[in-house]
Design brief:
The chain is α/β, with parallel strands linked by helices. It has one domain (8-308): TIM Barrel. The chain is 44% helix and 13% strand. It is built from 13 helices and nine strands. A nine-stranded parallel beta sheet has the order 2-1-9-8-7-6-5-4-3. Bound molecules: 3-hydroxy-3-methylglutaryl-coenzyme A and magnesium ion.
């Protein structure tokens, strides 16, 4: 299949990127990050998560983040700020905070589901039904995640048919898009291809998104495999931030800079300004006390420094 001419990026840095940070990140820093990301041209920025603060302390300020979201240019440009919601309690809080889009998050592995949201996959699907119905009745858009699509930290291999089954259940429930999460970044392009092919037998291709973590350095290769199959939506986090607190050993998301560089090189439009993005990656990783995990950012920053010298 010919590569797509356009790709939509879902920036998950403020949520997936920060949820696992060991030291508290201030609400002001989160809001500055969101403001800068919108300024880079990102049209979907996952802002926060309405989950239990006992389970994920870093997201405890979800309502405060929502209250401070950009209202000026970003709002005019129609930037969407989805938030994670695991249950009705989370939905109520998200709606009270003004969320217009939520994401529910299931898994293709019972062991991971149990660790992450304290219930089996089947129980999670029952829990999600009233969440999706209530959200949609209120006019909210609902996205669905499936975690562990290319391996589970507790169970090991995950069958592509199990991924397809959960993806279909979430789509059938009313999710407008299903994001396929390689939570532990264990996937390789061949496995990605087999998994996506299984999913698109049950969910329309245009409703499928890829969410790759870069633990083994394979995220960009996996994205390329998914692009070749016609997937046109990818999640990523600025600076390669991130990881799931309930997936031992999992490291960051694919860096948005690496994704934009790949797309640029392929002549695919993402609407994102790479220079601004690198500046944002440099800023947020500096605040967190480290370098961007993105090779692209490191290279662009080194070039900038050399040009200044
Ligand atoms: P539970 O302990 O079974 O829940 O946790 P519960 O209903 O028994 O409630 C326990 C306590 O939590 C109660 O408080 C509730 O009020 C409170 P207490 O009476 O003890 O003071 N509570 C809540 N508080 C705030 N917001 C809520 C909420 N719900 C209950 N929504 C629960 C079940 C789902 C709540 C918990 O397991 C949880 O919050 N899990 C979230 C874990 C998480 O956020 N993981 C990271 C995101 S997933 C991810 O990163 C993967 C992804 O990126 C894709 C990929 O990479 O694969 C999306
Ligand atoms: Mg993730």
């Amino acid at each position: 299949m010919a590569l797509p001419s356009k790709v939509r990026i879902v920036e998950v840095g403020p949520r997936d990127g920060l949820q696992n940070e060991p030291t508290p990140v201030s609400t002001a820093t989160k809001l500055e990050l969101i403001r800068r990301l919108a300024g880079c041209g990102l049209s979907t920025i996952e802002a926060t998560a309405f989950v239990s603060p006992k389970w994920v302390p870093q997201m405890a300020d979800a309502a405060k983040v929502m209250a401070g979201l950009p209202t000026g240019d970003a709002a005019k440009a129609g930037v969407a700020f989805p938030v994670l919601v695991p249950n009705l309690k989370g939905l109520e809080a998200a709606m009270a905070a003004g969320a217009r889009e939520i994401a529910i998050f299931g898994a293709a592995s019972d062991a991971f589901s149990q660790k992450n949201i304290n219930c089996s996959v089947a129980e999670s699907l029952e829990r999600f039904k009233p969440v999706v119905a209530t959200a949609r009745e209120a006019g909210l858009r609902v996205r669905g995640y499936v975690s562990c699509v290319l391996g589970c930290p507790y169970q090991g291999d995950v069958a592509p048919t199990a991924v397809a089954e959960v993806a279909h259940a979430l789509f059938d429930m009313g999710c407008y898009e299903i994001s396929l999460g390689d939570t532990i970044g264990a996937g390789t392009p061949g496995k990605t291809r087999v998994m996506v092919e299984a999913v698109v037998k049950r969910v329309p291709l245009k409703k499928v998104a890829g969410h790759f973590h870069d633990t083994y350095g394979m995220a960009i290769a996996n994205i390329y495999a998914a692009l070749q199959l016609g997937v046109t939506v990818f999640d990523s986090a600025v600076g390669g931030l991130g990881g799931c607190p309930y997936a031992a050993g999992a490291s960051g998301n694919v860096a948005t800079e690496d994704l934009v560089w790949l797309l640029k090189g392929l002549g695919i439009d993402s609407g994102v300004n790479l220079e601004e993005l690198v500046t944002t990656a440099d800023w947020i990783t500096g605040v967190l006390g480290r370098q961007p995990a993105s090779r692209v950012s490191v290279a662009v920053l080194a070039k900038r420094q050399a040009n200044c010298a």
